[in-house]
Design a protein that fits this description.
By secondary structure, this protein is mainly beta. It folds into two domains: 18-317, YVTN repeat-like/Quinoprotein amine dehydrogenase (Methylamine Dehydrogenase, Chain H), CATH 2.130.10.10; 326-433, Cytochrome Bc1 Complex, Chain D, domain 2, CATH 1.10.760.10. The chain has seven helices and 28 strands. The protein has helices spanning 2-12, 314-317, 336-344, 381-384, 392-401, 403-406, 420-433, and strands at residues 21-24, 30-35, 41-45, 49-54, 57-62, 68-73, 79-83, 87-93, 96-102, 107-113, 118-123, 127-132, 149-152, 158-163, 169-174, 178-183, 188-195, 200-206, 211-216, 221-225, 231-234, 242-248, 253-258, 262-267, 272-278, 285-290, 296-301, 305-310. A four-stranded antiparallel β-sheet has the order 1-28-27-26, with no helix packed on it. Strands 2-3-4-5 form a four-stranded antiparallel β-sheet. β6 (68-73) and β7 form a beta hairpin. α3 (336-344) crosses α7 and α5 (392-401) packs across α7 (420-433). The chain starts with a helix and ends in a 6-residue tail after the last helix.
Length: 439
Amino acid sequence: MRQALAIAILLASPLAAQEFFTLRGHGGPIMDLAVSPDGQIASASFDNSVGLWDGTTPRWLEGHRAAVNAVTFGAAGRPISGGDDYAIWFWPGADGGLRIGQHQAKVTDIAWSETAGIVATASWDHSIGLWPLESEAGYAPNPSPDAGQFLKGHRQGVNDVAFSLDGARLYSASVDGTIRLWDVAASAYQRTLVKHGFGINTLIVDETAGWIAYGGQDGGTRIVDRATGAQIADFTLDRRPILSMAYHPDTRQLAVGDGQGYIMVIDTGVLKITRDFRATRQGPIWALAFSPDGQNIHAGGIEDIIYSWPVATMDEHGPMQGGTRSFLEKPETLPNGERQFKRKCSICHTLTEDSARKAGPSLYGVFGRKAGVVRDYAYSDTLKGSKIVWSAETINALFDLGPDHYIPGTKMPMQRIAKQGDRNDLIDFLRSATAETED
């Protein structure tokens, strides 16, 4: 009954195939997208949240304490997510989530094998985590979420993982420039399939067709033989880096997103580029996912908006039109204090009375305010109990030392402003821009 209702909502909404649409509500850039078999979209964002979309209405999944980098649909069609807080969360229902694992550095990708009942996670701690997850409602969290099996051997961070169809093998792509194959049951390295020479950011495996596609930091976009690693095709263009890929097996379409805002679509049946679309005039394409029928490609990047284009008519709808993000404005057009705010603060904070689902609280009225008291923001325990009162002196110390030293344990990312003059200009701008006004 629930699945039938979800499909009915989908067909009645702007998410129907072959239509252009957008989804709005996040407070930060879109880092990853996943699509369930019935067409439901899950989105991971820099605003520390996962959005679960029925039509154009999101349900927010909150629990991460930093940017969410990866999301997929797992057991019983429920989302699994990982982020900059090193944590992996499973979202079994409306009552909240369960932290099922923890790495020692940020989580960059998640894969789920229903056959094996295992979640695999890629992390910049150089390891791959394996976390058992029951496939139906009887899921019970690990007694210790910090205790998982880890596959180790990559010399640098792991960016992407993908299971074999039977869940017995796992493929991984790394900053060290290799794609490796692992035996899941034995938790053991088998062999290296690709040595690229530059970091590999993303991969797709089609075991039925017998190939692996991957994208590199240098812009390399290649398809290689799954068994031998021998090159089958090279689609490298003069754009870098390759940041995202999505694949639709039934139509054999491979979508590739890069750092210069293009989405390239490849027909892997005939090994030909069929679309090369400039999806944004500014910024990268971090997230891609096909609709279940393969007719639409959903995408996300530096904007806080999810876009979906019909693949057949992408050019007719044009690129993302959300406007220039404040932190990308030309610095020479701004006074220095405003420039410092827009480059260092605006991606996480508003100057208005509400926090607008940003990764940090509103700065409205910040001077003289005790840390950790904005009502519409979920603070870390560190700031909830802090005795800091925001002033010129405390804001100066925050950016002089960096949040990781000034307030250890805060969710605020590592951020310093080295020059005293720049800190002074930022403080002067904030004093003016955040002042509470009388009605």
